[in-house]
Amino acid sequence: MNLDQTKPLQEFKEQIHPHYLLPLWERKVKLVPGSHCVPAHWPYSVVKPLLDKAATLINKKDADRRVLVMENPSLRSSSFIAQSLFAGQQIILPGEIAPSHRHSPNAFRFIVEGEGAYTSIDGIQMMMRPGDFIVTPNWAWHDHGNLGDQPVVWMDGLDTPFTSLFGAHFRENYPEDTYPVTHTSHEPDAASKSFLFPFIEMAKSLQDLVGTTPNLAHAYKLRYTDPVTQNDPLTTVSAFMQFLPDEFVGQSYRSTENTVFNVFQGSCVLEVGGQRYYLSKHDVFVVPSWETYRFESCENTYLFSFTDRAAQQTLGFWREEFLA
Ligand code: 1HN
User: Fold this and answer.
1) CA distance 54 to 32
2) Predicted TM-score of the model (pTM)
């Protein structure tokens, strides 16, 4: 373009600027997959002592929820682990109660360690065990408590970035600490089946697959589904448990999902963005949208993950690619 043309265009741009208009033909934001989020690692060896310290510094009543938020290094002061996902680590000590409230974001818990805690959802009280995945649908009353004699730690996942995006974030406290319990599930039962997905059942389903041909990237991987509707248990979030057999060497993979991994058992190497990360038991790692990654297991490994696939598939955005 010669200078004679650029000058009127430059003047035009300045003319439209006060009217909050800009020329699409000069758009700087490229329409390409991926985000400016970075891969990030939260080793449990770092997080656990800090959770223990938080438990000495703030009591549960004042904290409401004693959660350490895992914030993406590229998203300082967002409180999001990826542009579409929230993840935190919560610790609850013996005898403590996290008071009842409800909110428009969907939530889930993935139990990391400790026995004896429960969560109640609209009056259905469910005991939580390590490796269990528990869904708290939006606007359901929920409180947690620890009836046991050891601290209990879990990962909280929420779709708060969606409610923020839409400007649809509502929240209210229940007038009492606990919502009246109408049913107690000591073991998984009919009342808990759409909320509580026990580790033992997922592990059995995965072990039934061992011996069949593993997926080249994921080895053995199952998606949690609501037993009644067969849908993802949350409207925005998909969750998975995968089993990487000892010495599994995975091929590279990428998808438009933002993915948060949590190592439940075992350990593995995750290669992403040309870097190798050694993931130990209970470590958390986020792989942002369209980043290429691959796994190598160091032993038999159970890997939990959650992503925004449910939302992306509903919206028609989701894509994946297996790379050799
Ligand atoms: C929440 O309600 C819990 O209920 C945990 O345990 C973390 C983070 C943001 C908003 C609400 C819980 C949360 C949360």
Assistant:
1) 41
2) 0.96
